[in-house]
Specification:
The chain is mainly alpha-helical and about 80 residues long. The protein has a single domain, classed as lambda repressor-like DNA-binding domains (434 Repressor (Amino-terminal Domain), Orthogonal Bundle). The protein is globular, with a radius of gyration of 11 Å.
């Protein structure tokens, strides 16, 4: 990753892809994670720098490991 913004975009894209693969609406995932839908939307758009704790809550509610979200090697 070259910079913070690129990392945020890549993480957001990965979260969105995993969520959509599971057919979970954004509102439902946000509720399960106890975060506002608008915050999840910003995260998926790369507009925020999520904490590790937030990413762990998202991973748990998607049924994936935290490393599945943050390991961006060879992911598109």
């Amino acid at each position: 990753m070259k910079d913070k913004k690129q990392l945020q975009l890549a993480i957001g894209k990965r979260v969105k892809m995993l969520r959509e693969e599971r057919g979970i609406p954004q509102q439902d995932l946000a509720a399960k994670c106890n975060i506002e839908k608008s915050n999840l939307s910003r995260l998926e758009a790369g507009g925020t720098n999520p904490t590790l704790y937030t990413l762990k809550k998202i991973a748990d509610n998607l049924g994936v490991s935290l490393s599945d979200i943050v390991n961006l090697e060879d992911k598109s």
